[in-house]
Amino acid sequence: MSKLFCITDDPISVEEVVQLVSRREAGAINTFIGTVREFTYGKRTLHLEYQTYRSMAEKKLEQLGVEIEERWPEAKTAIVHRVGRLDIEDVAVVIAVSTPHRADSYEASRYAIERIKEMVPIWKKEHWEDGDAWIGDQTETNPYPEGAPQKEDLK
Amino acid sequence: MSKLFCITDDPISVEEVVQLVSRREAGAINTFIGTVREFTYGKRTLHLEYQTYRSMAEKKLEQLGVEIEERWPEAKTAIVHRVGRLDIEDVAVVIAVSTPHRADSYEASRYAIERIKEMVPIWKKEHWEDGDAWIGDQTETNPYPEGAPQKEDLK
Fold first, then answer.
1. SUPFAM superfamilies this protein is in (chains A, B) (predicted)?
2. Do B39 and A32 touch (CB under 8 A)?
3. What is the ipTM of this complex?
């Protein structure tokens, strides 16, 4: 793994993503790891399936990297998002942000995860115990099934 | 590594600390990694040396775990702090907090690092290019050399 912003089909190594941003100027690295949770408000998930429009998603992640650099010029960011079938406890996304001082690493990391959910074309299919549903993006509070992928979007 | 709160002389594996808090109930894991920075406000560090009163430090880390549990009952926390000589870019501390939803993981992780610097007896000796100095705690803004370790504190 050497690209700072990428989509992968394989399990993500947190350590490798951290290595991408580790550097002599940094005193702080914040990482956010999104994992597959079994229960969401009492409803049981069996597994998830992420699909994406890959080239667009990586472009959007890079664009997010630029946004972060504009806001936190001393930050270095890496984001890896996994797609395909994920089981409970699997890692879906890892964000790592290194900065000289810690406050910035928290803020930029938080910004990154919120923006990923807003702007990156990744769709999640929840396989519940009692059926399944496409969740348009990954937001928990505002799922919009109308955002589900069209066949031509999935590459 | 199996203890949730510990002091170690060895390099810290971020992946292992994350594993300690990974679980089916979690959808989010925030980690904070404190690393040795080369330059602090223009002053160059060659390496650092951390010393601790080990049993007391581990007790304090466990106490911090209880504080976090009181504030974020759904959080699971692990904290590993390294002591001894650390070179530039080495990892000094890893905090991992897993929670069902992401906002709590950020907040609890941030709380943890601030409290570590306030309450855990770990002293840092900065070996600068032009000399060295004990920093009473690890805060960057309020070093208090009078907090430097006494011989009998270091075990």
1. Molybdopterin synthase subunit MoaE (SSF54690)
2. no
3. 0.88
Between CA B78 and CA B46 the distance in angstroms is 29
Q: Is A26 on the interface with B (CB under 8 A)?
A: yes
Among candidates A26, A29, A106 on the partner chain, residue whose Cβ is nearest the Cβ of B106: A106
Residues 6+ apart with CB under 8 A from B41: none
Residue B77, chain A, CB below 8 Å: the answer is no
Cβ(A8)–Cβ(A91) below 8 Å: no
- Asked if B11 and B61 count as a contact pair (C-beta separation under 8 A), the reply is no
Query: With contact defined as beta carbons under 8 Å apart, do B98 and B46 qualify?
Result: no
Window 1-20 of B, Cβ < 8 Å to A? 13-15, 18
Q: Is A48 exposed, middle or buried (0-12, 13-18, 19+ CB in 10 A)?
A: buried
Q: Please state the pTM of the whole predicted model.
A: 0.88
* pLDDT tens sequence across B39-77: 988 889 999 999 999 999 999 999 999 999 999 999 999
